[in-house]
Amino acid sequence: MEEIKIYTLENEFLKVELLNLGAIIKKIELKDKNGNIKSVVLGYEDIEKYRENPAYLGAIIGRTAGRIKDGILKLDGTEYQLDKNNNGNRDKNKKINIKTCGKLYIAGEYAVLNCGNSAIIKNVDIFMNAQINFSKNSEYHIFSDMFDYLVTLKYDKNYSLIQNTIKNVNDFLILSKINPEPIDLKITGKMEKNGKKYGIGSSGSVVILVIKAMFELYYKKLNKKFFSKEIIFKLAAYTLLKLGDNGSMGDLACISYENMVFYTSFDREKIKEFIEKKDLKEVLEMDWGYKIEEIKCGIECNFLVGWTKKPSISSEMIKIVKSSIDKKFLSEVQDIVNNLREVIINGEKEKIKKLIENNGNILKKLNENIYSLELLKLVQATQGLDICAKSSGSGGGDCGIAISFDENDSKELIKRWEKLEIEIIFSGKL
Fold first, then answer.
1. Which of 155, 195, 215, 403 gives 20 to 30 Å between its CA and that of 56?
2. First CA to last CA distance, the chain
């Protein structure tokens, strides 16, 4: 058996002892504020105990000194299972940071409320953030800068959406044979300015943020399949449907996938019935009948978002407009969305511009409340430019979008919007 040797490095400030067993640090000695020399490294007094060293005390070299995903190492075709940190769990005190994006409708809003109809929805890289860790005591602590006070899981009207999401994720964890533990959760990023919301995120962003944060916290215990975009989407939709949300869930599709998506809605009343009759596991495993397809634009172009600074409440707008939706409207919009999907993928500029314009005109005819005066000005500002524009989402205020095919025209549009007091809140590639 090889003799264990100690190598010493020393100067006027500190002394370090290393072993010839993978350069294990046995001792680091330095002076405290009183001039007393003390060792600051945890280790064994008996040097022979380092031969086994199950806790890898002082290890700085070798496969166990760093972190290897799932503790699995492949070498010369053979797979080795190494020891995992803290029995596969995260450090309970470690804070995890997660973010979710916003979204805006390119085409298909209102029509997508009808089962089987589709929409194209774009992710917007304005983020809501969450910081999460296991609680140091037996109590949940939940904070959002939207409300600026701390709550537990005890019902609070303002925090009910977050509280219900946590409870649903906990149910999911139990079904996955995992015992939920109390958490500390902090949410920041209101997706608003001066108390006025942008209209790019809302409840969908919050729900998905909480789900993603909790999944990440339990990532070592959860099967990888539970991190799928589909599971996140379904669990988020399940949460909102249980709370009586009347939306299409298209925002959840876009935010879950964090990409531009072609989304076809499902029969939400039917799924609500299943939620009442079946357990969470059965509901998540069944085919809901929706379609989510990630799509990519085949031509270089800019995607600009203009904020009117006039807030609009989507649920209220839906109530106002819903009675105006008829079969003719649904058929026309579905044709537009289907064709727009194709021309975006193929990068057919003139057809993209024409279809965006057509969708905007149909929305104007549907209900006069959709295009506020500010949104009308936002669209009219594109005249003479190689740009198409329209309202986005429920309308009545909030944001409008523009797709620009010329860099100089993009700059000109931003100037025009500024003169109209329309704030540019996002500019990026489609």
1. 215
2. 65
The H or E element that residue 161 is part of is: helix 160-175
The CATH code belonging to domain 96-294 is 3.30.230.10
% of the chain with per-residue pLDDT over 90: 62
Element (H, E) at 25: strand 25-31
For range 394-418, the mean pLDDT = 95
Helix axes 250-257, 202-217, angle to 10 degrees: 40
CB of 305 closer than 8 Å to CB of 200: yes
Count the neighbouring beta carbons within 10 Å of the beta carbon of residue 106. Answer: 26
Record the pTM.
0.77
Any bridge partners for residue 262, and if so which?
120, 293
Strand ranges for 76-191 from DSSP E: 78-81, 96-107, 118-134, 141-144, 149-151, 183-188
Instruction: Kindly list the domain boundaries of the chain, sorted by start residue.
Output: 6-83, 96-294, 302-429
In the CATH hierarchy, which fold is given to the domain comprising 302-429? Alpha-Beta Plaits (3.30.70)
The residue type found at 102 is: G
- What is the dihedral angle through the alpha carbons of 364, 348, 383, 421, rounded to the nearest 10 degrees? 70
